[in-house]
Amino acid sequence: MSYKEQADVFKRTFELKYEPMAISFTNDEIQFGRYEKTSICNAMKLASEGESFIIDQKVSICPGGNQFCGFSEPHTGEQKRRLQQFLTKGERLTGSIVSFERMRKLAVPPATDLADRIVISPLDKAEIRPDMILFLCNAEQACRLITLDTYWDGISPEQQIIGALCYSAIVYTIMSGNTNMTTGDWTARSHQGFEPDVIFLSIPYERIHNLIAAIPHCSAGDAKAHIPEEFKSD
After folding, report:
1. How much is the pTM?
2. Among 34, 96, 134, 228, which residue has the least CB neighbours within 10 Å?
3. Are residues 123 and 50 in contact, defined by beta-carbon separation less than 8 angstroms?
4. Of 231, 19, 9, 35, the residue nearest 135 (C-alpha)
């Protein structure tokens, strides 16, 4: 099944408002997509609306995104002190430097030096194998996708709900191999104008084939549920 065929299945089955996105970390030279100054969260927003982006250290403008996605080393020393001050007194997204450190140390590590570039595009425009698929969906669509994702093995994925949007929606799944559902961080949501009901659901690409295969068998997909009479209430 081609990437476009997979995208068509997702859009048809779940009536998605936004494009499912293919995200790839690569060292290869890529010729398709916009190559311009942008933040990763902005590229996510625009890719969900049909655009494609190539992002590397030269064009990524967010210092936090550069660290999480592997374009720069994690801050230490005076740089870290400035970041602590910014997150606790500027953005006010965490209550203290202690809670900030817990967020950093209790999660999987960032994608430090993983790849030269990241490609973010609608799945139906993908030209290289995705490492993961990112869905911008509502709660019902997320429920159905997760049900299908776990249909064959019944194993609930470990979640990383909090953290910077690029970390929780992209890097966590890339580094852990886990399906993840997050609301992202408030700064990215508000600045990029994501709609209030949007949930970010990330699925490793290696799980996508089994997810699609479950659609005709599972009531969260196309299968019709059959309820025995003895289970029906009066």
Report:
1. 0.90
2. 228
3. no
4. 19
Positions in the chain short of pLDDT 50: none
> Are 168 and 198 spatial neighbours (Cβ–Cβ below 8 Å)?
no
For the four alpha carbons of 112, 115, 119 and 125, in that order, the dihedral sign comes to: negative
Q: Is residue 167 in some structural domain?
A: yes
Q: Tell whether 10 is covered by a domain.
A: yes
Q: Is residue 96 part of a domain?
A: no
Q: Express each pLDDT in 17-52 by its tens digit.
A: 999 999 999 999 999 999 999 999 999 999 999 999
The arrangement of strands across the sheet holding 53-56 comes to: 53-56, 117-122, 21-26, 132-137, 199-204, 180-182
Nearest to 222 by CA among 207, 211, 230, 208: 211
Number of domains composing the chain: 1
